[in-house]
């Protein structure tokens, strides 16, 4: 069902709502396109004409300046016109007004909605109820999916460690509430990552993940043993209120990534974080800024991946940019 | 109204030991004769019942009519009429109207509107506590005197065990049946789908099975303690069925029901974010669904209900977590019941027991009769007529069904309850 909604009969993306059901070849094609986009960013004239005359609307029902900026920059690098619209989620908590918002925006003849929304499934809902010529790019919906983040993480990993099958990857922290983790689990599964581990307390890591071949560790030291990649998730402060954790300091003692803990992993293990970081809560500054950290590289790779996805969906068929 | 003669229908009234072709002569308010005397009547309007089945009217233990309070979704007239047109002669309305059914004024309002609607017979459950809240008992005696069939809670249990125990004791002393729906509110809070594989992968906040089983365990202990007669509504998982079996074995005075969607669908049916599958209690695993079916077959589960919750179209036009839960169930209640027979889950007498007779026992009503003088309470339908369930053809004002376009059997020709007769021309 997801497949028919987001893939056209030729197997190209009409929307990108989730990585679920996408073929490996398509993911690899996007990573390859990102590689060529990355080179564009390094030259003098950073603009490509791929989306000239197209309009991309950043439709954010949840505030996120960082993420919105990378989508905006990606679209502008591809020569698209960009409109940013921040909609307070409270004014659209009912579907009717969300649909009203969509109808209004469609009247502006946009080609793509980049959507962030606090409800899981919101991107599907918007794709189902938008005019057929509008593509929807999910920039994060509730706990459900954040596909471009997972793609940029896969891309970042591949630049350092190209053989997915031989890798041991650990995702640490609040998997329960994390759309990033869900999309990463899908991406790593599709790309054939050798071993996927999830590390966290039972309040933040659903047991059923074991049914999908994920190895769950409640002990951070054991979980980090010999991993090639460690991905730290952001801990939302409101989790303390839900009786999920006792305190930030206890969380850091048990699950924070310190330099000393990192020695359990392989010596060339890379450290990732989707940002924004809570230093001293899930990650120590010495690690975040240390030699194994690729966190800033993730940000620039995010631009390349978003350019790749946008050009794949809206660009001329099969003509890759660089 | 003139006399009517139904000729040549297969009459199936299992509690009367009746399953044969027969003629039934009746008029508004009473059955006049069962063949052979019926066939000799000359001045009656004849309804050709050949190829049709005549059964006791279906009785649905959970029907929201949305009035008072939400008449933009549905109202008493629309839903009582829709029920009768679908072969459901009796509907039971839970107390969660707005305001709730905790005063005689609301009871009188609803029952008066129901009389005026001249549709299915409406039975009303009063609120167990004032405002369905955690603090005070409702005036149960007054509610019964005004016409309530019992008192209860709906959608969630009380958190306060002290108040619940006192309420059950008080109801027991009035010999009132208590209608409960086991659901631990804090455990279910924020959830929109069964906590399991599907909700985890889709990032949907889960409602754990424990929200139901923990509340059920507590409810059963209190039922045993107070000796109250109780009906447990909308069970959704295998574990609950096992607990009810055990409770009955210990001699507790309990009965229970299951909602039709939980008998046909499971957690996978919410994919991909299908608004019509946003249900409370949620659709659980395929194994749970199978256990509910087995419970219906064995009798561990006494009753089938539609758990009718009509909504306006806007209620479903939102991202999945923001969709208002519940499905409109009246228009598929007969067809899905027949489907259980087609699929070999139930035989005909057992289906009638679960969907028509056992609910009457829960309500404390006499069984429907066909002897001269009995009040009419039956349905004539063509079991072989098949049609897809089309939203635009539904009788209920709520078109929110997960069964849209399912091919369903059963076309109601005539439904009679007391002095109200619906005859499709």
Predict the CATH topology of the largest domain in chain A: Rossmann fold
Mean pLDDT of chain B: 96
Query: Do you know the CATH topology of the largest domain in chain B?
Result: TIM Barrel
Q: What CATH first level of the largest domain in chain B would be assigned?
A: Alpha Beta
Our measurement of the CA-to-CA distance between the termini of chain B, rounded to an integer number of angstroms, reads 16 Å
Largest sheet of chain A: 5 strands, parallel
Please mark out the parts of chain B with pLDDT under 50 across 5 or more consecutive residues, or reply none. none
Q: What would CATH call the homologous superfamily of the largest domain in chain B?
A: Metal-dependent hydrolases
Percent helix of chain B: 25-40%
Give an overview in words.
The complex is a heterodimer of chains A (322) and B (425). Chain A is an alpha/beta fold. Chain A has helices spanning 2-6, 24-42, 65-77, 95-106, 122-129, 147-160, 179-191, 220-224, 248-255, 259-262, 285-288, 295-314; strands at 55-60, 81-86, 112-117, 135-141, 168-172, 195-199, 215-217, 229-232, 270-272. Chain B is of the alpha/beta class. In chain B, helix 4 links the parallel strand 9 and strand 10 (177-180). The longest helix of chain B is centred in the middle third of the chain and has 18 residues, at 209-226. In chain B, 57% of the residues are buried. The chains are: A alpha/beta (322), B alpha/beta (425). The interface between A and B is medium-sized, with 30 and 20 residues.
Detail the topology: elements first, then pairings.
The complex is a heterodimer of chains A (322) and B (425).
Chain A: H1 2-6, H2 24-42, E1 55-60, H3 65-77, E2 81-86, H4 95-106, E3 112-117, H5 122-129, E4 135-141, H6 147-160, E5 168-172, H7 179-191, E6 195-199, E7 215-217, H8 220-224, E8 229-232, H9 248-255, H10 259-262, E9 270-272, H11 285-288, H12 295-314
Parallel strand pairs in A: 1-2, 1-3, 3-4, 5-6, 5-8, 6-7, 8-9
Helix pairs in contact in A: 2-6, 2-12, 3-12, 6-7, 6-12
Chain B: E1 4-13, E2 18-27, E3 30-34, E4 45-48, E5 53-56, E6 58-60, H1 76-85, E7 88-93, H2 104-117, E8 121-127, H3 140-146, E9 150-152, H4 161-173, E10 177-180, H5 185-188, E11 193-194, H6 197-202, E12 206-207, H7 209-226, E13 229-232, H8 238-249, E14 254-259, H9 260-264, H10 286-298, E15 303-305, H11 330-342, H12 348-363, E16 377-388, E17 407-417, E18 420-423
Parallel strand pairs in B: 1-4, 1-5, 6-7, 7-8, 8-9, 9-10, 10-13, 11-12, 13-14, 14-15
Antiparallel strand pairs in B: 1-2, 2-3, 5-16, 16-17, 17-18
Helix pairs in contact in B: 1-2, 4-7, 7-8
């Amino acid at each position: 069902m997801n497949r028919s909604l987001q893939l056209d009969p030729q197997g190209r993306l009409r929307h990108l709502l989730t990585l679920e059901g996408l073929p490996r070849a398509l993911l690899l094609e996007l990573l390859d396109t990102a590689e060529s986009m990355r080179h564009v960013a390094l030259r003098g004239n950073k603009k490509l004409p791929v989306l000239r005359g197209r309009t991309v609307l950043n439709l954010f029902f949840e505030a996120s300046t960082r993420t919105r900026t990378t989508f905006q920059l990606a679209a502008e690098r591809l020569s698209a016109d960009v409109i940013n619209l921040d909609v307070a989620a409270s004014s659209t908590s009912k579907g009717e007004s969300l649909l009203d918002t969509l109808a209004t925006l469609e009247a502006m003849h946009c080609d793509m909605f980049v959507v962030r929304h606090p409800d899981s499934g919101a991107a599907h809902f918007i794709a189902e109820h938008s005019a057929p010529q509008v593509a929807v790019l999910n920039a994060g919906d509730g706990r459900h999916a954040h596909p471009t983040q997972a793609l940029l993480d896969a891309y970042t990993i591949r630049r350092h460690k190209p053989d997915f099958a031989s890798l041991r990857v650990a995702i640490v922290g609040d998997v329960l509430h994390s759309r990033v983790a869900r999309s990463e689990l899908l991406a790593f599964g599709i790309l054939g990552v050798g071993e996927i581990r999830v590390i966290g307390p039972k309040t933040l890591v659903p047991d059923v993940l074991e049914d999908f071949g994920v190895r769950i560790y409640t002990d951070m030291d054991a979980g980090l043993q010999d991993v090639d990649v460690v991905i730290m998730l952001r801990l939302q402060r409101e989790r303390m209120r839900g009786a999920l954790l006792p305190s930030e300091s206890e969380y850091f003692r048990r699950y924070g990534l310190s330099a000393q803990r990192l020695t359990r992993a392989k010596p060339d293990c890379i450290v990732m974080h989707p940002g924004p970081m809570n230093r001293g809560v899930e990650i120590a500054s010495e690690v975040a800024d240390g030699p194994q950290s690729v966190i800033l590289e993730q940000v620039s790779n995010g631009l390349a991946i978003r350019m790749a996805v946008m050009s794949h969906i809206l660009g001329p068929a099969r003509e890759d940019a660089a | 109204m003139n006399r009517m003669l139904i000729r040549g229908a297969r009459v199936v009234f299992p509690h009367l030991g009746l399953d044969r072709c027969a003629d039934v002569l009746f008029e508004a308010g009473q059955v006049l004769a069962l063949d052979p005397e019926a066939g000799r009547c000359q001045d009656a309007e004849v309804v050709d019942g050949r190829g049709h089945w005549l059964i006791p009217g279906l009785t649905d233990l959970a029907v929201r009519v949305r009035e008072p309070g939400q008449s933009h979704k549905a109202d008493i007239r629309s839903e009582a009429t829709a029920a009768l047109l679908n072969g459901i002669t009796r509907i039971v309305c839970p107390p969660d109207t707005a305001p709730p059914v905790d005063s005689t004024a609301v009871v009188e309002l609803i029952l008066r509107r129901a009389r005026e609607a001249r549709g299915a017979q409406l039975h009303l459950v009063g609120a167990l506590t004032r405002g369905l809240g955690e603090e005070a008992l409702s005036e149960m005696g007054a509610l019964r005197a005004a016409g309530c069939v019992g008192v209860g809670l709906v959608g969630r249990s009380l958190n306060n065990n002290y108040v619940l125990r006192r309420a059950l004791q008080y109801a027991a002393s009035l010999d009132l049946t208590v209608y409960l729906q086991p659901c631990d509110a804090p455990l279910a809070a924020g959830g929109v789908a069964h906590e399991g594989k599907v909700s985890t992968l889709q990032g949907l906040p889960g409602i754990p099975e424990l929200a139901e089983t923990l509340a059920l365990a507590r409810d059963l202990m209190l039922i045993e303690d107070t000796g109250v007669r109780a009906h447990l509504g909308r069970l959704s998982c295998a574990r609950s069925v096992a607990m009810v079996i055990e409770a009955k074995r210990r001699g507790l005075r309990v009965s229970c029901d299951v909602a039709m969607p939980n008998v046909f669908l499971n957690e996978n049916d919410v994919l991909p974010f299908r608004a019509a599958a946003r249900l409370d209690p949620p659709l659980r695993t395929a194994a749970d669904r199978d256990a509910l079916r087995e419970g219906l077959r064995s009798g561990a589960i006494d009753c089938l209900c539609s758990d009718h919750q009509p909504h306006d179209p806007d209620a479903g036009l939102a991202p999945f977590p923001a969709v208002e839960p519940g499905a409109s169930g009246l228009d598929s209640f007969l067809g899905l019941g027949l489907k259980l027979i087609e699929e070999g889950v139930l035989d005909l007498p057992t289906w009638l027991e679960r969907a028509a007779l056992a609910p009457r026992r829960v309500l404390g009503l006499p069984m429907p009769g066909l002897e001269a003088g009995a009040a009419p309470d039956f349905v004539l339908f063509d079991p072989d007529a098949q049609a897809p369930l089309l939203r635009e053809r539904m009788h209920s004002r709520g078109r929110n069904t997960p069964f849209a376009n399912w091919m369903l059997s059963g076309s109601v020709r005539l439904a009679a309850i007391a002095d109200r007769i619906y005859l499709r021309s």
